[in-house]
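Hello again, I could really use a second opinion on something today. I've been staring at a protein lately and its backbone has me curious. Can you walk me through what the tokens say about the fold? Take your time with it, there's no hurry, and the full record follows here:
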Amino acid sequence: MEGYRPLALQEKYFSRYRDELRRANPAWSEEHLRIQASRSLAPPEVAPHVCGAAVDLTLVAEDGVEVEMGTPVNAGPEESGGRCYTHHPEISAGARANRRLLCDAMSGAGFVNYPTEWWHWSYGDRYWALITGAPTAIYGPAGG
């Protein structure tokens, strides 16, 4: 679905989502808005997509039709009732099996999942280094 994302696009996505949350929750402080927005979109300064170390993907059947994963790719926690979380207990058995298949394939290839987004997988970024115990990330922000 998506891999490398230029920094300007990450900033746009993050700001747009933070602003949506602000409109829906006008009493939230700026700090709380940033924390809540960060549940679904990485802040631009730490985002793995801007270094080309992350990919958003789903599974498709032989005919190219997406299989049931419990939510569409990029469904936020608010709109999905939290079902965007990789191991959410309230998804169908079929979606759970499909997520397990995706997890097995991607983990087997060395990727790590960002658990608030079943579709988001990283290799070589700071989050990957943290989860795998690597001494450093392989990739940093790319230009542009």
